[in-house]
Design goal:
Protein name: SDR family NAD(P)-dependent oxidoreductase
Distance between the termini: 34 Å
CATH class: Alpha Beta
CATH architecture: 3-Layer(aba) Sandwich
InterPro entries: NAD(P)-bd_dom_sf, SDR_fam
Structural class: alpha/beta
Pfam families: adh_short
Radius of gyration: 12 Å
Organism: Kocuria gwangalliensis
CATH superfamily: NAD(P)-binding Rossmann-like Domain
Largest sheet: 3 strands, parallel
Strand content: 15-25%
Order of helices and strands: EHEHEH
Length: 74
C-alpha cells in the first residue's frame, strides 16, 4: 500500500512507543518523515529502524520539546 506517497508526515514522540510504531508503518506506506523527540540519540536509532523497513524513505530528525514554543519555531 502506498497511500502516503509524495507526502511528508511529522511525528512527535517518534523515538519510542506509538510514535516509533507509527513512523515505521507510515514510512512503509510511502511517506517521507520528520521525526521529533527529546532524545537525539534515540532519534538516530529510530531513524535506523525505520530505514531498515523502508529504505527509500527520506527522514529528517529533530531533537526538540514540542511543548516549548521557541523550540518549535526553530
Amino acid at each position: 500500500m502506498a497511500r502516503f506517497t509524495d507526502k511528508v508526515v511529522i511525528i512527535t514522540g517518534a523515538a519510542s512507543g506509538l510514535g516509533l510504531e507509527s513512523a515505521v508503518r507510515i514510512a512503509s506506506e510511502g511517506a517521507d518523515l520528520v521525526l521529533v523527540d527529546l532524545k537525539e540519540d534515540a532519534l538516530e536509532a529510530a531513524k535506523a529502524l525505520v530505514l531498515g523497513t523502508a529504505p527509500e524513505a527520506k527522514i529528517l530528525t529533530v531533537a526538540a520539546d514540542v511543548s516549548d514554543e521557541s523550540q518549535v519555531q526553530k
